[in-house]
Design goal:
Layout: H1 19-25, H2 29-58, H3 68-102, H4 111-129, H5 158-187, H6 200-231, H7 239-253, H8 255-259, H9 262-276, H10 283-297, H11 313-322, H12 324-338, H13 347-369, H14 372-378, H15 382-392, H16 396-412, H17 418-445, H18 461-491, H19 532-550
Helix pairs in contact: 2-3, 2-4, 2-18, 3-4, 3-5, 3-6, 4-5, 5-6, 6-7, 6-9, 6-10, 9-12, 9-13, 9-16, 10-12, 13-15, 13-16, 13-17, 15-17, 17-18
Length: 551
């Protein structure tokens, strides 16, 4: 791929106003990235509160903390928020912040478009949440909102209309952000930064953005179909349109799982390499696996529809299980990176190591639900809830926190407190597994998804109580995380430019980086591999050893 010769010679950005106005209108990719990440984290805490209300409701049988209708709103907005407004935007925010730095670019391609994407995402989130302020409350038909349940005849609330508009706006914002990240990779790489020298994280963003561009228009089409159905409910009188909606929705809905996975997987890979003192193992194989995984992800949507009888069991089961091959390559690359290394157990490393087994549970149970004979049994039970949360929280969220602890010094110039970080880690490990493991048992016992209460004779009481206790531990861990951020920003322990001895280019510049990323005081080093800083240290050590030998 040809490198843009203007990558390191274009003029500096014009000075921007300071303060909040400067932050909110800046076209500096680092500020936009931090806005996206910060907004995602705020929404994550809000969605966590909704989850706690649900677990409070289910902690005991015959509980009536909230009404059934309010409970429906809680799980709908919690699921919609975590998928549309938290995990996906956070992953893209990491890309906006890191990709230009990792490829040696002075900024984003089309930064105003990136900023527009951020504001569409924010307006979308506000619009969706505004449903709680309407007389009938927020949308209450689940994050997938199947018709005819979600049409205006069965769900006449204004909150449902706001949900459609909010998700639509956010989806457009995500597409714009994904497109600008991809275009930045294609047009802004520094001299010497060939495609096969890009760090694994930047490659993961390429695969992620390709899926965003390929799959998210299907979400827009599904939302338009739903909006038409709300104007004219007779549209969904025919089952053809109801099933058609599901096909279009899941064409988006399955690849988005990997949009919420690839950046965190790659972040874990970078952390494992740095804290093991080794190069990333199996670089080329992992890049090919990411691309193959992204392509295959567009062919498996029907396994979400086995129970409808309107999806080809053999085809979707085969393509779903075929995902094992690229997934296996990626897992072995992570394990191979660690083996034989000198491990340093700092907080980012702990989260990265925990990511591997936690996500493995989600992946293996994904194979189970991709097998029709098992899927028929567990569809719409708590087994699916457990699987979904092992993928998106027990897995991806651990990658997310590994990324936060790893790159926080780069973005702020200060270190997070190690003791609080480890306390956060252990509370999350205990809380996550205490919350979600019992849900597999609940699914086995036959507890349906989305019910707001159950009876003492159902046999669900003990496992639900354990799950709710786990949610409380999780909440405590998140409060520790919040306190750690606030306390670290207040006390400001300087991190230095490269506190972890990183391998990739973002650690070659100052912490936080200047507006143009690289300056004469912090120039780009020679780029001969995907780990240029490790190359430089290796050359320096070799030169010192050679000098010592001559003496």
């Amino acid at each position: 791929m040809k490198t843009d010769p203007l990558a390191v010679t274009e003029p500096s950005p014009r000075p921007r106003p300071g303060g909040w106005l400067g932050l909110l209108t800046s076209t500096d990719h680092k500020r936009i990235g931090l806005l996206i990440i910060g907004t995602s984290l705020v929404l994550m805490f809000m969605m966590g509160v909704l989850a706690l209300l649900m677990r409070g409701q289910l902690a005991q049988p015959d509980e009536h903390l909230v009404s059934g209708q309010v409970y429906n709103q809680l799980f709908t907005i919690h699921g919609s928020g975590m998928i549309y407004m938290v995990m996906t935007p956070f992953a893209l925010g990491l890309g906006v912040y890191l990709v230009p730095l990792q490829i040696g670019a002075p900024g984003m391609a089309m930064p105003r478009t990136t900023l527009l994407g951020y504001w569409l995402y924010v307006f979308g989130a506000v619009t969706m949440l505004a449903g709680f302020a309407t007389p009938q409350g927020a949308h209450a038909d689940g994050w997938f909102s199947y018709p005819p349940m979600a049409d205006s005849e069965h769900s006449p609330s204004v909150g449902s209309d706001l949900w459609i508009v909010g998700v639509f706006l956010s989806a457009i914002g995500v597409i714009l952000i994904g497109w600008t990240v991809l275009w930045t990779v294609l047009r802004k790489r520094a001299p010497g930064m060939t495609m096969m020298r890009m760090p694994v994280f930047s490659w993961s963003m390429v695969a992620t953005c390709l899926m965003v561009i390929g799959a998210f228009p299907a979400l827009l089409a599904a939302l338009v179909m739903l909006a038409v159905g709300r104007v004219d409910p007779s549209v969904f009188a025919s089952n053809v349109w109801n099933i058609g909606y599901q096909h279009i929705f899941w064409f988006y809905g399955h690849p988005v799982v990997y949009v919420m996975f690839f950046p965190y997987l790659a972040a874990v890979g970078e952390v494992l390499a740095v804290f093991s003192g080794r190069r990333f193992f199996g670089y080329k194989g992992t890049v090919l696996a990411l691309l193959a995984f992204a392509a295959l992800s567009m062919s498996v949507w029907g396994h979400h529809m086995f129970a409808t009888g309107q999806a080809a069991n053999n085809y979707y089961s085969l393509t779903s299980i075929a995902l094992l091959m690229p997934a296996g390559i990626e897992y072995f690359a992570l394990i191979g990176t660690v083996l034989g290394g000198r491990l340093v157990f700092r907080t980012p490393m702990l989260f990265a190591l925990a990511f591997i087994p936690q996500f493995l549970i989600g992946g293996l149970t994904g194979i189970m639900v991709g097998t029709p004979v098992i899927d028929y049994h567990v569809t719409d039970s708590y087994f699916i809830v457990a699987h979904l949360h092992y993928v998106l929280f027990a897995g991806s969220a651990f990658g997310l926190f590994a990324a936060v602890y790893y790159w926080f010094p780069k973005a702020t110039g200060v270190l997070l407190r190690e003791g609080l970080g480890k306390l956060h880690f252990w509370l999350l490990v205990v809380g996550t597994n205490l919350t979600f493991l019992p849900m597999f048992g609940l699914g086995y016992l036959g507890m349906p998804r989305r019910i707001s209460s159950y009876s003492t004779v159902d046999g669900f009481s003990l496992l639900n109580l354990l799950s709710s206790c786990g949610a409380a531990v999780l909440a405590a861990g998140m409060l520790v995380f919040l306190f750690n951020i606030l306390e670290s920003l207040r006390s400001k322990r300087p991190a230095g430019d490269d506190p972890w001895h990183g391998h990739t280019l973002e650690w070659a510049t100052s912490s936080p980086p200047p507006e143009v990323n690289f300056t004469p005081q912090h120039p780009l080093p020679p780029i001969t591999s995907n780990a240029p800083l490790l190359d430089r240290r290796t050359r320096d050590r070799s030169a010192v050893d050679a000098e010592g030998s001559r003496k």
